Amino acid sequence: MVIYNHPLIFYPEFIVNTYQLQVVANSYIVYFYYYLNYVLTT
């Protein structure tokens, strides 16, 4: 079971069952987090 260090988003194991999907999900979370932070601070 992969547990992400994120307070709001939790991915079930069957969604990120491969390493490639884990990388995609991680990069998407990081991108979305910085995008949201940019929008809220401008």
Write up what this structure looks like.
The mean pLDDT is 70. This protein is 52% helix and 0% strand. By secondary structure, the protein is mostly helical. The longest helix is centred in the C-terminal third of the chain and has 22 residues. It has a domain of 27 residues. It is rod-shaped and about 35 Å long. It has one helix and no strands.
Topology:
Blueprint: H1 19-40
Q: Report the sheet-strand fraction.
A: under 5%
- Average pLDDT, to the nearest integer? 70
Helix content: 40-55%
Q: Helix segment count?
A: 1
The CA-CA distance between the termini, in Å, is 37 Å
Count the E strands.
0
Give the topology string: H per helix, E per strand. Answer: H
Report low-confidence residues grouped into runs of 5 or more: none
